[in-house]
Structures are given as C-alpha cells and as structure tokens.
C-alpha cells in the first residue's frame, strides 16, 4: 500500500487523483476514481452550464461517500463565476485551482470546508499559493496534457518539495505508468494527478471516441506545446501558459505562424469548432500529454488506477536498477 501525507489527509486508498479536465471530465469519471479509492475530480470551468455542473456533483454523491474534488481555471472564475458559487454552496470535499493567482478565491473555498489544492507551473506561482493558504501544492510539468507551463516536472517538483516542506506536493505531467509514478514519489511527491491516462477510459464520457483512440495510438513525440488553439479561442491565459495537444494536421500547418493565424483567425477558429462537432482529431484540439506513449488501450478507470499504483509499489520495493526485467 502506498501511504503518503496525501492519502492520510483525505483518507484515500491510493495517492492518485484524476485531473480536473474542463470539457473532458465529469461526474462519471470522478465517481469511478473516488469509488476505486483515488480522488476523483472534474473540471468546473467549462461550457456545459451550471445545471450540468450541479448534476455532476449530485451524481458523484449518489455513487459514493468518498472524497471528490472540483477544479477551476482560476483566471476564468471572475469571467464566469456561477459554477464557483455553486461549488461553495455544494461544499465538495476538495477544490482545485490552476494557472492564475488563487488568492482572490482560495479563502472562500477553505471557508466552505474544502481542502484546497493549487496546481502550479513555477516556483513563483507556488509561493502565491502557499501565501494564499493552499493545503496541497501540485507541480504541473510541461509534459502534461492540456494547458501547462514551461518548466519540466522533476525540476519544478524538487523545487517545491525543498522550498515548501510543510505543504505536501503532488506531481502532474507524464504519469501514465508505474515507473513514472515511482520516479515522482522518489523525488518527493506525495501523490500524482493524472489526466492523459484517464482520458482513455470508458468513464471519460465527455471525450469523443476518436480522441481516445488518438491517445492510444500516439507517442509522446506526437504531442506539442503550442498556443495555436489559444489564439483561436477567447479565454485569457497567463504568460508562459499554453496547451499540450496532439500534433494534428492543423497544428503541423499553423504552429509558430502567429501573425498569419491572427489574420485568418475567424476562418481557422470556425474550422476547429466544426471539426470538434464532427469529432475530427486532425483539426480539432485534442489535448494529451507526453505520457500518451504508455497508454496502450482504453480501459476502465479503476484498472488504470490500480495498475499504476501496484507497478509503482513493486518498483519502489525492488528498484528497476536492481533487476534486469524491471
Ligand atoms: C484534456 C485535458 C483537459 C485539461 N483541462 C484542465 C483544466 O480544465 N484545468 C486544469 O487545472 N488542468 C487541466 N488539464 C491539466 C491536468 O490538470 C493535468 O495537469 C494533466 O492532465 C497532467 O498531465 P498528464 O495529462 O500527462 O497526466 C487538462 C488536461 C487534459 C489532458
């Protein structure tokens, strides 16, 4: 059993959370992960509306008494505060903030009784989160799927573990195998947040099937860190934050050509939106991380969770450098 400060804090069986993924995770996935003994979460900053948001919380509670969390893209809360206000009313056991300064919001989450997790992309952002009173820091490396920062996981994680020893740190980015998870634990993480690994599960009902298949078919080199889809969208992102996506046809053609993209923004944005509607992964944004290479099949979330934890535990008991077969 992998017992850590994170499992002790929340009474979990496994030190893994499913990442809050806006528009890609809901109550079905969160409930499955929490039921399996991890921390299930879902994204609260999305385009599905407040009724959907409330329903997801109700669904999780109908399935399990175990802890679960909801995550917010911090800079979007003030633009669209409805779901954040609903969360404060509904009092989920855990609330997660990512990307921008959490100080305007985190105190209200704590007052509502939530354990707060701040996903950060730099040591400076971690300092803001600690000053705001975060209970847990989550180091998100550039390997991660979805929006992320420029630092890689290990240097960021080690910085946080050393600078803020009183605050447990989790790892995110590229953890789709027991080996990667064991490495993060060895570097001082108290657990991990997994997005890409849980995209390829039947419980990720918000994710189109062809996108799940792309995750299974892709290797890490098939992903790219790009601002292309942000140039086409309306959401604001802090400096240094961009999206790691599947390197599809649209990205191969337009990545790095920002000025031209801006002159053809309307047309390209409309192409991408229509592609999303017809589930075409060659033009729509398909967010996935470099760990996609270790996702070999679409499998139930509880299997993903157990296998990664059991494998990490085996490796930690008998490190890979001590055995030829790993
Ligand atoms: C499809 C997708 C959507 C995501 N959406 C969000 C989000 O809305 N909020 C957030 O904090 N992180 C989001 N992330 C990032 C995750 O929180 C997490 O850091 C990342 O998935 C971890 O790396 P991995 O994908 O390699 O496991 C998203 C990731 C993916 C793959």
Account of the protein in words:
This protein is an alpha/beta fold and 326 residues long. It has two domains: 226 residues, Aldolase class I (TIM Barrel); 69 residues, no CATH class. Helices cover 43% and strands 15% of the residues. The chain contains 16 helices and eleven strands. Strands 1-9-8-6-5-4-3-2 form an eight-stranded parallel β-sheet. The protein has a three-stranded antiparallel β-sheet with strand order 7-11-10. Strand 2, helix 3 and strand 3 form a beta-alpha-beta unit. Helix 2 runs parallel beside helix 3. The site of flavin mononucleotide has 31 residues, from strand 3, strand 7, strand 9 and helix 10.
Number of helices: 16
What proportion of the residues is helical, as a percent range? 40-55%
| Ligand list | flavin mononucleotide
For the residues shown, what is the average pLDDT? 97
- The tally of beta strands, per DSSP, is 11
CATH architectural label of the largest domain? Alpha-Beta Barrel
End-to-end Cα distance, whole Å, is: 19 Å
- The fold-level CATH name of the largest domain is TIM Barrel
Largest sheet: 8 strands, parallel
Number of structurally distinct domains: 2
Widest β-sheet, arrangement of strands: 1-9-8-6-5-4-3-2
CATH class of the largest domain: Alpha Beta
Share of residues in strands: 5-15%
Taken from the alpha-carbon principal axes, the silhouette is globular
Helix/strand structural class = alpha/beta
Radius of gyration: 19 Å
H/E element sequence: HEHEHEHHEHEHEEHEHEHHEHEHHHH
Low-confidence stretches: none
For the record, what is the CATH homologous superfamily label of the largest domain?
A: Aldolase class I
């Amino acid at each position: 059993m992998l017992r850590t400060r994170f499992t002790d804090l929340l009474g979990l069986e496994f030190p893994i959370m499913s990442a809050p993924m806006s528009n890609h995770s809901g109550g079905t996935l969160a409930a499955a992960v929490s039921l399996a003994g991890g921390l299930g979460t879902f994204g609260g900053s999305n385009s599905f509306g407040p009724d959907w948001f409330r329903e997801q919380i109700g669904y999780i509670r109908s399935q399990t008494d175990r802890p679960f969390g909801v995550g917010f893209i911090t800079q979007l809360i003030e633009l669209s505060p409805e779901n954040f206000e609903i969360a404060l009313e509904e009092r989920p056991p855990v609330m997660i903030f990512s990307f921008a300064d959490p100080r305007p919001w985190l105190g209200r989450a704590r007052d509502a009784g939530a354990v707060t997790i701040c996903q950060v992309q730099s040591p400076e952002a971690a300092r803001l989160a600690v000053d705001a009173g975060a209970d847990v820091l989550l180091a998100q490396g550039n390997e991660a799927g979805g929006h992320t920062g420029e630092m890689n996981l290990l240097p960021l994680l080690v910085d946080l573990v050393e600078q803020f020893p009183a605050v447990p740190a989790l790892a995110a980015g590229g953890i789709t195998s027991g080996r990667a998870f064991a490495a993060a634990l060895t570097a001082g993480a108290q657990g991990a947040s997994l997005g890409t690994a849980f995209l390829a599960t039947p419980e990720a009902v918000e994710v189109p099937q062809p996108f799940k298949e792309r995750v299974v078919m892709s290797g890490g080199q098939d992903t790219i860190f790009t601002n292309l889809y942000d140039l086409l969208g309306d959401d604001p992102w802090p400096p240094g934050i961009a999206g790691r996506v599947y390197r599809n046809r649209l990205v191969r053609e337009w990545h790095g050509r920002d000025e031209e993209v801006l002159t053809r923004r309307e047309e390209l944005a409309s192409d991408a939106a229509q592609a999303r509607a017809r589930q075409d992964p060659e033009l729509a944004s398909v967010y996935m991380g470099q760990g996609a290479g270790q996702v070999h099949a679409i499998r139930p979330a509880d299997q993903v969770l157990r296998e990664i934890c059991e494998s990490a535990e085996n490796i930690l008991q008998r490190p890979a450098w001590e055995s030829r077969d790993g």
